[in-house]
Amino acid sequence: MANGSAGAVLRAVLDLGSAPRSVVAKHAGVSPATVTWQSRALVEAGLLVELPETASPGGVGRPHSPIALDSVGNVVLAVHIAAVQITVAVVDIAGSVLHSEQVPHRTHAPYDILDTVVERVRAVGANLAEHVRIRGLGVAVGGRVDTATGSVVDHSYLRWHDVPVREYLGARTGLPVSVDSHTRATVYAEQLYGRLRGSASSIVLFVGNVIDAAIAVHGRVHCGPRFGAGSITRLLGTTDRFALEALGDHALLARARAVGHYDDVPDLVAAAVAGGGERDYFLERATAMGEVAAALIDLIDPEALILIDRGLPVPGVRDAYDEAVRAHSAIGANPAEVISPSSFPGQVLVMAAAGVVLQELFDDPLNTVVAHAV
């Protein structure tokens, strides 16, 4: 993830916590001299702090001054735009969620939703302490996202087409804005703070109102020239009972509401966890999506697949995924070794939105700081 030596040093400090420069050099795979001058630049940029001098282990050798992330003084604002609500959060550069709030959509009109984002981002930013630096605004959203322009090309559920999210939010908040699809953004968050640290090849399979995947090879997330890599809705066409389009959260909710009353998807999940007949909806989906997971695993042969599905807490759902993978994976993948849930239970989408801008910061920190300061 880190192209330059400054990024390698910053990422090493993230991995290690506070550490002397000699340890950082070994972890980052760069020379001690490189760590010395890059850490000095990162301290000047406000991303690292130099801790008080401490004695070497056993009192042998010269004392050293560890370096650490300045997580207290550096945060990003994170916005996730979902089917029914926005989430606005504050996340520090060490990956801790400091604040999170949700606001339901009044309509699906893009600028109505984006105006709500502007209102809440301004309010949340105004409540931060004066010494805290906002390093950017990350926006994660479903559908196809043009990361170069920061526009939502297409979002089938919200019916958005060519919405210039970055331009609109940047002009109204005064913040540097980065936009990406929620699934690619989840890979970034998992690479920085979760189970995909150090993983060269990986997949995130997202099963929600939008069903899609993100693929990383050699640590790099693939986007594609039409920004559609990971669009798997028609991967298998139809299953025995329904098309993949009918497997989204609200599609399951609509089916369940035909026979009972449920307030929302969490209400449906809770009823299924409690052992009701609602469990069958999630088991059927897991069986179908397990076949999709098997196809993705055979295509990429990844070190890890992160599975995100709100139905995972439902008894038998993870087993259904595993059984489908075992039945359909031609390479004989062992689901227990490859598939893991998200590293951020209850905060997946917040961390995804933060990951959009944090991956830029840790990839090329000095140039990102300069660019965002303009």
Descriptive terms for the model:
Nucleotidyltransferase, domain 5; 3 domains; globular; 5-stranded mixed sheet; 15 strands
Written account of the structure:
This protein is of the alpha/beta class and 374 residues long. The protein has 13 helices and 15 strands. Helix content is 41%, strand content 21%. It has a 5-stranded mixed beta sheet with strand order 5-4-3-6-10, sandwiched between helices. Strands 13-12-11-14-15 form a 5-stranded mixed beta sheet, with helices on both faces. A hairpin with a 4-residue loop joins β8 (151-155) and β9 (160-163). It starts with a helix and ends with a helix. InterPro entries: ATPase_NBD (IPR043129), ROK (IPR000600), WH-like_DNA-bd_sf (IPR036388), WH_DNA-bd_sf (IPR036390). This is ROK family protein.
